[in-house]
Amino acid sequence: MKSLCLYIVILATLIKSIASFSCEDIYLDSKKTLYKAISQKKVENEIKYSYGTEYNTWYIDPCSSVENEPKDYTKEKCPDNSRVCLVKTIEFNDEKKRKVIDIIGYAVSTPVQDPFIRQGNYTLYFEGEKESNYSAEINFSCAGDEKSNPDIELDANKKKVKVFWKGICVTDNKTEPIKDDDGKDNNNKKSGGHFIIRFILIIIICYFIIGMCYNYFVLNKNGLDIIPHIDILISVFGPIFDKISDLFGRRDYRPILQ
User: Which terminus of the chain has fewer CB atoms gathered within 10 Å of its CB, N or C?
Assistant: First the structure.
């Protein structure tokens, strides 16, 4: 049972590390990465009352955590690893300092990277923070001004917040910048090919790691014997290695004269 749990942990870690999202791997039509194109956004709305003003302040950063916000307060902070966070504060008419009413985290952890992009629009899906239990979507759209603040929609019934980031157009190949418009179709095909190759590599790596763990922990094998099906690998690659060694070993050979 312990060995089975170990295999599952190794498999999940490998898949998550290879297929996880990173802003530095996402390229835009402007040939910049998503990491360089965007920065943390602070969007604030005011609600006026007779006794004071309530402020709803959103901190948004798809590329890094906003857990250090708000900086004006020492104890009240956004949840750890949160990418979208709402801070509610109030300022009474007879006071000059705001008081924190509530802090809610809406996007926690790293999303899985979707290998497909639809007409330059790109969407990230985040799980919600444990206490708020809200999920979040961050949408990047080609339309609009990149310098403008993102639009935010909060659906309390579905427990979901949607962020619409304007003027961010992701390339079709997404993993490398495009050179010109004529190469978009070719880059799109390459993107699908790269995904298939990565998927095959994940399976091969998982096969060897899980097999070695099984041979070591369950069958108590050591040395080269922990490699799964080592006898088959030796029989297949052994003659090839011998021929290569023999070929390079005979090159520039000079007999030793006594």
Answer: C
